[in-house]
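hey m, so remember when u said the tokens were messed up on ur end? i reran from scratch. heres the input so u can diff it against urs
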Amino acid sequence: MLVLTRKVGEQILIGDEITVTVLDVRKDGIKIGIDAPRHIRVQRQEIVLAVADENLESAKSSSSAEAALKSLFGIAPAEKSQTESGSGEDEVNPPENGAE
């Protein structure tokens, strides 16, 4: 990690496309400005982590919640096929009228 000391108005260049400017210094923090091309994402780490946590929680839907939603929308539960039920055998239909 590169550690630098900067004063208000001073800048840090990252590559050829990104400029970080110190805008204000206070007791409780600093204010910086970041100038970067649109294709480069600039995000606050705490927001990225919070969104990732929420996505994990929402992905853990319970079967009771799924059943409640299906009931609400009038969707019948899906029937399990033989493959899903674990028989492991594929159904083969015999040829009709003796044709192969």
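this time it looks ok to me. Residues 45-59 form the longest helix (15 residues). if urs says something different then somethings off w ur setup not the seq
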